């Protein structure tokens, strides 16, 4: 990842089968896995995907926040593989505490970061290269 040195472990075949049976068969299996965040990251867009379905096993601490940013003079949705320095050039669009004990979908082409981490952030990540399966689009009107 361009914004940090965090580590991803890819899902084994048993985990991939569970995702196919219980969530969706329409995902990028070779880009999905368990992500360990143990250092700060710059606000960024993802390198290899447009959307990601996440579940935090550990959130990074009770005050951790998933934050979405808009860079001055730029559209909200950007291209992949950007990083942005923190400062007055970034406007906070939305922040979500945690999230805790739920699956959530992130548009990874919106600049995002996790702030206020005081411990390990460990999450399951199911990647979607371009667009979302119809299951998610119709259910959540994305």
Fraction of residues in H or I helices: 10-25%
Low-confidence stretches: none
What's the structural domain tally? 1
Largest sheet strand order: 1-2-8-3-6
What structural class do helix, strand and pairing data support? Answer: mainly beta
CATH top level is: Mainly Beta
CATH fold assignment: Jelly Rolls
What is the string of helix and strand elements? EHEEEEEEEH
How many strands appear in the DSSP assignment? 8
Give the overall silhouette: globular
What is the residue-mean pLDDT, rounded to a whole number?
90
- Number of alpha- plus pi-helical segments: 2
Q: Gyration radius, to the nearest Å? A: 15 Å
| Second-tier CATH architecture | Sandwich
CA(first)-CA(last) distance: 26 Å
Beta-strand portion reads 35-45%
Largest sheet, in brief, is: 5 strands, antiparallel
How would you describe the overall organization of this protein?
This protein has 142 residues and is mostly beta strands. It has one domain (7-140): Jelly Rolls, CATH 2.60.120. 12% of the residues lie in helices and 36% in strands. The protein has 2 helices and 8 strands, in the order E-H-E-E-E-E-E-E-E-H. The chain has helices at 13-22, 134-140; strands at residues 7-10, 33-37, 51-59, 65-71, 90-97, 103-107, 111-115, 121-128. It has a 5-stranded antiparallel beta sheet, with no helix packed on it. A 3-stranded antiparallel beta sheet has the order 5-4-7, with no helix packed on it. The protein is globular, with a radius of gyration of 15 Å. It starts with 6 loop residues before the first strand and ends with a helix. The mean pLDDT is 90.
